Amino acid sequence: MKLCNIGHNFDYEMEKLIRLFLPFEKIEVLHTVEIDQKYAVCEVFEQGEDIVTRVKLILQNEQAQFCSVVDKNISDTRKETQHELGRQLFYCFEKITNYRPDWGILTGVRPAKLFLRYCNDYGEQYAEEFFKNKFLVTQQKLDLCKKAVKGEEGIIALSGEKSFSLYLSVPFCPTRCSYCSFVSHSIEKAQDIIPQYVELLCRELEITANIAQKLGLRLETVYMGGGTPTTLNSEQLDLVLGTVNRCFDMSTVREFTVEAGRPDTIDENKLMAIKRNGVTRISINPQTMNDSVLETIGRKHTASDTVAAFNLARKIGFDNINMDLIAVLPTDTFDSFKDTVYEILKLDPESVTIHSLSMKRASTLNTNGQHNEIHLGAQASKMVEFGRDILTQNGILPYYMYRQSKTVGNLENVGYAKQGYEGLYNVYIMDETHTILACGASAVTKLKDNTQKNIKRIFNYKYPYEYISGFEELISRKAEIGEFYGKYFI
Fold first, then answer.
1. What does R_g of the chain's alpha carbons equal in angstroms?
2. Most-buried pick from 80, 261, 413, 461 (CB within 10 A)?
3. Does 82 share its domain with 199?
4. What's the rounded Cα separation, in Å, for the pair 439 and 357?
């Protein structure tokens, strides 16, 4: 469609709002009016003491138009003009599609962090009114946001000035799920390079540990993710996790997580390797307990495999297990999603994360045109609200929240946990609480200064082949860690 922006430069913001309703629409941004079958004219002009915002939308052979004014004498005229124009565009889409995303015009990935900032700066009442009246967030989502803030605050308070977390990337999976756009390689294609990758990952860990020790940093949490870390065999898991224990000061670690992930990669030897290396928390992620949905998304395991893997982990002694679910997977229904939640509750995990399906451009479902998000927002909302209600009723409470781009219904991902089993790393990474030192392909180190306002990123090579071939260059970038701390921690 054509997006015609007249009298302003809010191109990025208006395009993001259109993508709440048309996430994969090809949008041509113009600064003149051009008529088309689908087009929006977003106009700003002055009229006396006021700034006028006017939006006209043509979509699905229907038309909507809204107009409003902004007082030129208010303190932040530009921001209010942007918000008002966004609201008008939102109202136009709502009128034509008869669909209203619950987060309104709020498109950022960290709504809880934004809400907390408003609370600290202006007070909770102001924050609530701003979210409802300016961002058009529903009361239901506002309540969720407040609960997430309450859950996150206590975890954030554990972090000190020299705290950091460690992330390890294992970008391999048994197969690629159809909804996935992460940098991961199937074992069939990457089997030959895994031994070398593991060797270099251990070298990077040794070098990173040496830097952290010299800087006097305090390790709070360790998270091994991917991909699927349990695509490594038990000996490789022993080697990587043993390197972490050998090289880092683990005496201060509050949480050590391995994302076991796919049930079809889990066996007794791997779980024993994870357990003997001091891992305190694992994830076993079914995504759904519906076998036909699993087949649709390209998973090679069944719901019974998930149950078997979970029970095996319990037998070996894991007492902190998370399970991930995804709402509105292809061919899933509300009733089958309900069944999934009930089946998960029977297993009694310590935490559950409910994700809303995010359709990235690189996912197979998107490239194959198998999923049309605009019609699924209401269904997705119904699923995640059911999940929230039933988990909360069973004492598994929301403690952190974040969002991804191009999520069905512009919805959120929420971590739920029994009291005392909250995933600390999840909060630290999403809140950007402290430094994350990251190792492995596609890993991104995030350095946080003591003013809590500046973040510097150091990117590792994205793909395993690049990581191996460019390893020495990658290691040279580690010098930036010391330079950063020398500048901001004096």
1. 24
2. 261
3. no
4. 27
Residue 138 belongs to some domain of the structure: no
Overall number of domains in the chain: 2
Distance set, CA 450 to CA 118, 249, 433, 435, 487 (Å): 21, 22, 10, 10, 10
DSSP letters of 32-92? Answer: S----SSEEEEEEEEETTEEEEEEEEEETTEEEEEEEEEETTSTTHHHHHHHHHHHHHHHH
* CATH number, domain containing residue 361: 3.80.30.20
Tell me, yes or no, whether 3 lies in a domain.
yes
Provide the residue range defining the domain that includes 469.
154-476
Is residue 490 in some structural domain?
no
Judgement on whether residues 344 and 414 belong to the same structural domain of the protein: yes
In the listed set 52, 72, 98, which residue is the last one of a domain according to the structure? 98
Domain boundary among 98, 130, 146: 98
Q: Is the residue at 128 inside a domain?
A: no
**CATH code, 83:** 3.90.950.10
pLDDT in tens, the chain (490 residues): 999 999 999 999 999 999 888 877 899 999 999 998 999 999 999 998 899 999 999 998 899 999 999 998 888 899 999 999 999 999 999 999 888 999 999 988 889 989 999 999 999 999 999 999 999 999 999 999 999 999 999 999 999 989 999 999 999 987 655 555 444 555 556 788 999 999 999 999 999 999 999 999 999 999 999 889 999 999 999 999 999 999 999 999 999 999 998 899 999 999 999 999 999 999 999 999 999 999 998 888 899 999 999 999 999 999 999 999 999 999 999 999 999 999 999 999 999 999 998 865 434 444 444 445 556 788 898 999 999 999 999 999 999 999 887 788 889 999 999 999 999 999 999 999 999 999 999 999 999 987 767 899 999 999 999 999 999 999 999 999 999 998 876 5
What is the amino acid identity at position 48? Answer: G
